[in-house]
Design a protein that fits this description.
It is built from one helix and three strands. It is α+β, with helices and mostly antiparallel strands and about 90 residues long.
């Protein structure tokens, strides 16, 4: 997969059941969270153990991010989609 689009959804913890899946509009900033994930997807130079989910985060041509509250398990969902080269 050389040309990739990414969708990243961050699920931030909250105890209030009424706010489940409501937008999370406070710190940490979504762009800082996205940068952390993007860097983790691509390998470090010389790392012989981690080859990365993408060869370089610069090959990601489209990025969609969200931060939502959850009263369930906090975490992150990452969806990578390849883009056909002949389109």
């Amino acid at each position: 997969m050389s040309e990739v689009s990414a969708e990243i959804v961050f699920f931030m913890p909250i105890a209030d059941k009424r706010r489940h899946l409501a937008p999370h509009v406070s710190r940490p900033d979504v762009d800082n969270l996205a940068k952390l994930v993007m860097d983790a997807l691509s390998p470090e130079r010389g790392d012989k153990y981690w080859k990365g989910a993408v060869s370089d985060d610069g090959t990601i041509w489209s990025l969609r991010t969200k931060k939502l509250y959850t009263n369930e398990m906090p975490g992150v969902r990452i969806r990578l989609t390849g883009y056909p080269k002949d389109c």
